[in-house]
């Protein structure tokens, strides 16, 4: 809130005159200062102004000048301070000296002038309040726009994150599906190879029994195929699966360690088992190689919580 000096300056009074009025009235308020200014408006503020006026007179000014007249609007003033206040208030810059004396203001004129000043002060305060209110509204509008922009950015980020997670899960499901299919294909190929081999052996045995001249036949055991690798699909408790290829000579403990490192179904003790045929592997089986446990060339292991 402006103080008395700022209020008087806003009303159009010179700062020197306003300070002097407040000093003369013992800081009695804006009203008392305005009354003093209106009563002593024709007085000079200090000796410096008298010196400047004397200098101007020496340069050729009319010594009989008793007032100043605004050339822009034609209004007369009794003192330079009044003319200065008029110039500040109206932005008029052209003044000339006049020999006509401006009579003192009557009580009614003083009251009318005071009323105009007060009305102008109220108008300026109203304009300032309206300007401050408009600035407040603009700031509030800007704050709301910023909040909406932040909300939109947050929503877009969340949508992009959800899409990324959905794409990742879809890729994981597709990879799991392909791994299951590869295991099924390997099992089917092994079944076909065994069936073809058994059929060939049956045909050879039948031909030998129908021969007229039977010759002693030395039945050699079928050649056992050696596998160097073992492909395992390990199903976790949460429905997901791990697929990995191990060396045929690795122990079942290596498979258990692989599960402990890569499992996604949480921590906790577990056991390994097969379903066809159903078998739960014990601690003694952990040191046996995969070839000895019947998991070659491929098999499906189930992780079961203990």
UniProtKB/TrEMBL annotation:
Compositional bias per record (Acidic residues), positions renumbered to this chain: 41-52
CDD domains: UBA_UBXN1, UBX_UBXN1
Taxonomic superkingdom: Eukaryota
Biased composition (Basic and acidic residues): 100-138, 151-203
Keyword Repeat: no
Coiled-coil positions: none
Spans annotated as Disordered: 40-211
Gene Ontology CC annotation, any one: nucleus
Domain UBX: 225-303
Keyword Zinc-finger: yes
GO biological process: negative regulation of proteasomal ubiquitin-dependent protein catabolic process; negative regulation of protein K48-linked deubiquitination; negative regulation of protein ubiquitination
Gene3D superfamilies per the UniProt record, alphabetical: DNA helicase RuvA subunit, C-terminal domain, Phosphatidylinositol 3-kinase Catalytic Subunit, Chain A, domain 1
Cell location: Cytoplasm
Domain C2H2-type stretches: 68-97
UniProt keyword terms in alphabetical order: Coiled coil, Cytoplasm, Metal-binding, Zinc, Zinc-finger
InterPro entries: UBA, UBA-like_sf, UBA_UBXN1, Ubiquitin-like_domsf, UBX_dom, Znf_C2H2_type
GO MF, any single term: K48-linked polyubiquitin modification-dependent protein binding
Domain UBA, first and last residues per copy: 1-40
Annotated protein name in UniProt: DgyrCDS2854
């Amino acid at each position: 809130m402006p103080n008395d000096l700022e209020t008087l300056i806003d009303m159009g009074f010179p700062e020197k005159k306003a300070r002097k009025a407040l000093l003369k009235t013992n800081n009695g308020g804006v009203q008392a200062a305005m009354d003093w200014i209106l009563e002593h408006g024709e007085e000079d503020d200090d000796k410096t102004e008298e010196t400047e006026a004397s200098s101007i007179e020496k340069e050729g000014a009319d010594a009989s000048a008793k007032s100043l007249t605004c050339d822009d609007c034609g209004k007369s003033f009794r003192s330079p301070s009044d003319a200065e206040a008029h110039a500040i208030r109206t932005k008029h810059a052209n003044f000339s000296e006049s020999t006509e004396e401006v009579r003192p203001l009557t009580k009614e004129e003083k009251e009318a002038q005071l009323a105009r000043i007060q009305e102008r002060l109220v108008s300026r305060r109203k304009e300032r309040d309206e300007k401050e209110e408009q600035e407040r509204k603009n700031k509030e509008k800007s704050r709301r726009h910023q909040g909406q922009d932040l909300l939109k950015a947050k929503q877009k980020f969340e949508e992009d994150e959800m899409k990324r997670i959905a794409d990742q899960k879809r890729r994981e499901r597709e990879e799991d599906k392909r791994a299951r299919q590869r295991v099924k294909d390997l099992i089917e190929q092994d079944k076909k190879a065994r069936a073809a081999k058994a059929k060939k052996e049956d045909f050879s045995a039948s031909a030998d029994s129908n021969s007229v001249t039977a010759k002693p036949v030395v039945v050699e055991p079928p050649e056992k195929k050696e596998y160097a690798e073992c492909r395992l699909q390990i199903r976790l408790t949460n429905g997901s699966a791990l697929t990995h290829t191990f060396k045929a000579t690795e122990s079942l403990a290596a498979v258990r360690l692989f599960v402990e490192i890569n499992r996604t179904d949480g921590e906790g003790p577990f056991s390994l088992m097969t379903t066809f045929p159903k078998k739960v592997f014990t601690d003694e089986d952990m040191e046996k190689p995969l070839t000895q446990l019947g998991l070659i060339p491929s098999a499906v292991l189930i992780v079961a919580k203990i």
